[in-house]
Amino acid sequence: MSTALPPTDQLLYTPEEAAVVLRFGRSTVYELMAEGVLKYVKRGRSRRIRRSDLENYVNDLEPLPN
Predict the structure, then answer these.
(1) pLDDT tens for residues 10-28?
(2) How far is residue 44 CA from its own chain's centroid?
């Protein structure tokens, strides 16, 4: 698997690409999807995550208190 970041103008990400962008493990992204925390679209057997859903997920993260 490549460690290069996907292009920023990309509209849909595979779970593996989303993991790279978020700097999470691939299994963590799948867990977030299964829990309904990270939205995705499914076409056939493929799952894709919209760039806007990745941005919304990150924007909704709560910072740790100091």
Answers:
(1) 999 999 999 999 999 999 9
(2) 19
Q: Is 22 exposed, middle or buried (0-12, 13-18, 19+ CB in 10 A)?
A: middle
DSSP, collapsed to helix, strand or coil, labels residue 50 as strand
pLDDT band at 50 (very low <50, low <70, confident <90, very high): very high
Closest by CA position to 29, among listed 10, 14, 7: 14
Domain ranges of the chain: 12-59
- Cα gap 48→13, rounded to integer Å: 5
In whole angstroms, what separates CA 25 from the centre of its chain? 10
